[in-house]
Design a protein that fits this description.
Elements lengths: L23 E10 L2 E9 L8 E7 L7 E4 L5 E6 L2 E5 L10 H16 L9
Antiparallel strand pairs: 1-2, 2-3, 3-6, 4-5, 5-6
C-alpha cells in the first residue's frame, strides 16, 4: 500500500521537501483543536541515517510561508502543502501518550508566530 493511501487525498506527502521514496507512514491519529483538523502520524524515510519522527499536519487555508525553521521553538520545521501545514521536529518521535499535547504545542507555536513573536514569522 502506498504512502498516500494512508492520508487524505488533499495531503500529498510525496510533495513534501522531506519525503523520500520508500518512506513509511503509520500510527495516524486525527484530532480537532480550535476548530481545525489535525492529523498526527509517524514518518520514516528509511534512509541510511533516518530516524522515525512524528509529524503534525494542520488543515488550514491561513497563508503561511513555505518553509520556516522555528529554531526559537525547539527546532520545529514547518512546510506548507496546499491547505495543510506540516510541523515536525527532525528525528523526534512522540510517544502515543504525548500526541495530544504535541498537537496543542504545535497549535500554540502557530499562534505565537501569528502574534509576530518570531523574526521569520509563520504568518
Amino acid at each position: 500500500m502506498g504512502i498516500s493511501e494512508h492520508l487524505p487525498n488533499t495531503l500529498d506527502l510525496k510533495k513534501a521537501l522531506f519525503y523520500a521514496v520508500g518512506a513509511e507512514v503509520w500510527n495516524i491519529d486525527q484530532y480537532e483543536h480550535d476548530g481545525r483538523r489535525y492529523l498526527v502520524f509517524d514518518y520514516d524515510s528509511h534512509g541510511e541515517y533516518s530516524s522515525p519522527e512524528t509529524i503534525v499536519a494542520i488543515e488550514t487555508s491561513t497563508p503561511v510561508t513555505a518553509t520556516t525553521n522555528l529554531s526559537l521553538a525547539g527546532d520545529f520545521l514547518s512546510e506548507r502543502l496546499g491547505d495543510w501545514l506540516l510541523i515536525r521536529q527532525p528525528r523526534i518521535q512522540v510517544t502515543s501518550n504525548r500526541r495530544q499535547q504535541f498537537v496543542e504545542d504545535c497549535a500554540n507555536i502557530i499562534e505565537y508566530a501569528r502574534e509576530g513573536n518570531f523574526p521569520d514569522s509563520l504568518v
